[in-house]
Design a protein that fits this description.
With 215 residues, this protein is of the alpha/beta class. The protein is 43% helix and 18% strand. It is globular.
Length: 215
C-alpha cells in the first residue's frame, strides 16, 4: 500500500509506532520497522547517554528506517534532541515546542522531521518552518493540550491547505477496533500512529528492557 507517508519515509505499510515512554523501546521499534512500518523510539525518560545507547541498539536490530522522539517541554529534552541529530536518526519526531532548529540540522544530513501537533495553529506553525510531516494527536492519544480526539479533528485538518498541498500526516489513535485500522487504508496522505494496541501487547517486554537498565 502506497501513501505519501510510505513514500516519504521509505516504508512498506502506513503504520507508525508512537514514541511511548517505557513501551517504545529498541526491540519494539526495530520489530515495527522490520515489519515494514516506522518504529519511533521514546526518549522522554532517558538521559542523553541512554538515548545514544538506545539508538545504537535499534541500529543493531534493523537496517530499516526508524525514528526517535523528543518532547521539548521536558527537562533534558534539548540535550536528547542533540543526541538524535548527532546520531543522524533518520526520522526525528518532536512535540511541545518550536523545532525549527531540529528541522534545519536534520535536513542537513538528509533526515526527516515530524511535528506532533494538537491544534490547527500548531500544524500551520510546524509547516511554516519546514517539517516534513505532521503527527496529528487528539485527547485519547495523550495529546497534552488538546480537548478533542484524533477522530474529531484529523478530518478537518486533512482538508486544510496545510495537508492538501505539501504536508502528509499520520493520525495518532488509541483505538483498537478493526474499523479504526481500516480507516488508514484509503488513498490519502495519512497513516495510523498506534498507541493502545502496542501498549496492550508490549508491557512485559518494556518491563524487561527497563529492568536491565536498573530503572
Amino acid at each position: 500500500m502506497r501513501t505519501r507517508i510510505t513514500e516519504l519515509f521509505g516504508i512498506t505499510h502506513p503504520v507508525v509506532l508512537s514514541g511511548m515512554s517505557w513501551i517504545s523501546v529498541p526491540s519494539l521499534v526495530a520489530a515495527v520497522s522490520n515489519a515494514g512500518g516506522l518504529g519511533i523510539l521514546a526518549t522522554g525518560v532517558l538521559s542523553p547517554k541512554q538515548t545514544r545507547e538506545a539508538i545504537r541498539e535499534v541500529r543493531a536490530l534493523t537496517d530499516r528506517p526508524f525514528g526517535a522522539n523528543v518532547t521539548l517541554y521536558f527537562p533534558g529534552a534539548k540535550e536528547n534532541a542533540q543526541v538524535l541529530l548527532e546520531e543522524r536518526v533518520p526520522v526525528v519526531n518532536f512535540s511541545m515546542g518550536k523545532g525549527d532548529w531540529i528541522v534545519e540540522q536534520a535536513h542537513g544530513y538528509g533526515g526527516k522531521v515530524v511535528a506532533t501537533v494538537t491544534t490547527a495553529k500548531h500544524a500551520r506553525s510546524a509547516a511554516e518552518y519546514g517539517t516534513d510531516a505532521l503527527l496529528v494527536t487528539g485527547h485519547e492519544a495523550a495529546a497534552h493540550g488538546s480537548d478533542v480526539t484524533s477522530w474529531c479533528w484529523s478530518p478537518p485538518l486533512r482538508a486544510t491547505s496545510t495537508c492538501r498541498s505539501s504536508r502528509p500526516a499520520a493520525s495518532a489513535t488509541a483505538g483498537r477496533s478493526a474499523r479504526h485500522w481500516r480507516s488508514a487504508r484509503t488513498p490519502s496522505p495519512w497513516a495510523r500512529a498506534s498507541c493502545a494496541r502496542w501498549r496492550a501487547r508490549c508491557t512485559r517486554r518494556a518491563s524487561s528492557w527497563r529492568s536491565t537498565r536498573g530503572a
